Amino acid sequence: MKAFNDWCREMDEELVVSKVVVQSIDLFGPRIGFLKFKAEATTRDGKPVPGIVFMRGGAVAIFIVITCKESKKQYTLLTVQPRVPVGKAALYELPAGMLDNSGDFVGMAAKELEEETSLKVQKKDLMDLTEMAFGSGCLGIYPSAGGCDEYLRIFLYRATMSPQEISSLHDKCTGVLEEGETIKLKVIPIDDLWSLAPDGKALSALCLYTKLLKLGKVTPTN
């Protein structure tokens, strides 16, 4: 599993892992998708630290900013789908997906964007907000570091659309049926995102985008 190999290779020198006990494995076809294990770990001076890990590796999320050609009002595009782990039949989220073994962050972001929203984009159209904020040495944002290795790379995609194009996206059904995805799209005003989507990806993206705009690292749309 690439995520496990990366975890071993990137382990901080101040942490000492003496033993790993694998507790369960979930396969995605021929490859390992999720891995649950307990690591016996201490700090360099011998103090024990919690080591229960749910491993799933990295993921990408795409923050979509749509500007209306006529009104210049800005919107974002969210996915709505069932999320059993949090007991929600319809959770508002950014389009997102797990990385494969290629390590191609931008390519995976473009692929997930098309699968979940039907929007076809080129790699050059995506901006890595995570790298712009933290530099190239940062893998991504850690949403649940107390028990999960997952890190998120958040990308920005901006487009200008007519009112008709924007309307055609709202309530559109998408997703990859073979992967059990039943997704409905929602177009919402970007100013309402913070109060409509209790999604860590969306709120992190909004924070990064707003701050990078303020610093001039992302140019405003006309």
Automatic annotation (TrEMBL):
Keywords: Hydrolase. One of its GO terms (molecular function) is ADP-ribose pyrophosphohydrolase activity. It comes from the Eukaryota. Residues 55-210 form the Nudix hydrolase domain. Pfam families: NUDIX (PF00293). It comes from Guillardia theta (strain CCMP2712). Its cofactor is Mg(2+). One of its GO terms (biological process) is ribose phosphate metabolic process. InterPro entries: NUDIX_hydrolase-like_dom_sf (IPR015797), NUDIX_hydrolase_dom (IPR000086). This is Nudix hydrolase domain-containing protein.
